[in-house]
Design brief:
alpha+beta, 4 helices, 4 strands
């Protein structure tokens, strides 16, 4: 647990800002150097780079909503959740280090995608994995940040369960 307030705040800000920075730099590079819907194989056909715009949320959910509903569900509501999450994280000093890192990854990824949605009206996605039976949708580094944060929480829960039982 992080009891020192200054270290707690620095860790949160660093985690969130690094995640936002990596996400935004990668999206900028893709927008500048990869043609829209161009597929570039990086590792044979298993890992490809492309450039698509997602006007919806995860897996394009909500992209066909009318403008006021889309604004509320994909911009306003996530903004409120991210502000509340950030405030909660800054206020709670009794959290384990892994919880602080996990939440920082999730907030950084969420802010990265929200920034795109506000600035461009859509989110730039560009990575795709295809290993036959396992295949992803097209995603970005903000999505990786969110999934990493969730993975840290899951790992923490598993370890905690094993140490208690």
């Amino acid at each position: 647990m992080l009891r020192n307030r200054r270290i707690h705040i620095i860790l949160i800000l660093a985690t969130v800002l690094i995640n936002i920075g990596c996400d935004q730099v990668s999206k900028h590079l893709v927008r500048e150097h990869v043609e829209y819907q161009q597929f570039i194989p990086l590792v044979d056909h298993h890992f490809t780079l492309t450039n698509v715009e997602n006007s919806g949320a995860f897996l394009s959910m909500g992209d066909r909503l009318d403008r006021p509903y889309k604004f509320f569900l994909l911009t306003l509501f996530p903004s409120l959740v991210l502000v509340a999450g950030f405030g909660w994280l800054m206020w709670r000093r009794d959290l384990p280090l892994l919880s602080v890192l996990a939440t920082g990854f999730i907030l950084g990824g969420g802010i990265g995608n929200l920034f795109d949605r506000i600035r461009f009206g859509s989110v730039t996605d560009f990575l795709h994995l295809d290993f036959g039976l396992f295949q992803t949708g097209i995603f970005n580094l903000a999505d990786v940040s969110i999934m990493t944060g969730l993975g840290i929480f899951l790992l923490q829960a598993v370890v905690q369960t094993k140490t208690q039982g």
